[in-house]
Amino acid sequence: MSGTGKPTIQTLRRRQRLFEKSIQYRASEFKKFATERARAEDELGRSREELRALAAHLQAVREEERARLAREIHDELSGSLTALKMDLSLLPDRAAKDRNLFLEKLTSMSVLIDDTLARVHTIVTELRPVVLDKFGLVAAVEWQIGEFQERSGIACESHLPAEEILLDSDRSTAVFRILQEALTNVMRHANATKVVVDLRSEAESLILSVRDNGKGIDPKVIYAHNSTGLLGMRERALPLGGVTRITNLPEGGTLMSVRIPQNNVSLQK
Asked: Does residue 106 belong to any structural domain of this protein?
């Protein structure tokens, strides 16, 4: 600064440089903020689309399940009960005419009753497996693997804890339904000949993994809005603080893993 109290040219230039740097810094910060805001808005929009797709899928599945149950109850249970009613109406006449025919009809009615009860058990089990409530998650997983292998013809290998894992009903149900969805995906899309299911408790978390030797999965499909099965698995784990991962294996096939805390601690970051 000169003796007159006026700033020198050097001082003015230094102030100008500082001002320009301040402007550049603020512009950079604003650009960063705008980028982060745009990314957050994109993620929010994507999440809303996923939720809408999931809601539509769940509604469609619910209606499809209602229609299926209505058909099964009408076609099988109603038909069986109608046949029993007709046989009962004929019993007095047959008992009077032919004892052997009467006993033969009683036997056939007993068989029909057994078949009807078995079908009722199957329908109830499909709605919610009794083994999950009575014996716990490990037993339910073992039962589901056996059912899947028998139905699909795909060889299954399982690694399960020797003792039952203590979980609340919400977590047990979520893990079981995720397993069902994962096995359904394998049967429908993987072209696999073998599935390996692993269930274990580790660091206060429950880990379920389903690995197959199929054709793998297109990475674009994993987070696609129309991949409602995969979306459903993530959405089941998310409210419980869980994390779901789906990846292709180097040796071929797909690995689905879900980690859910055995308490109320969230694993989300």
From this structure: yes
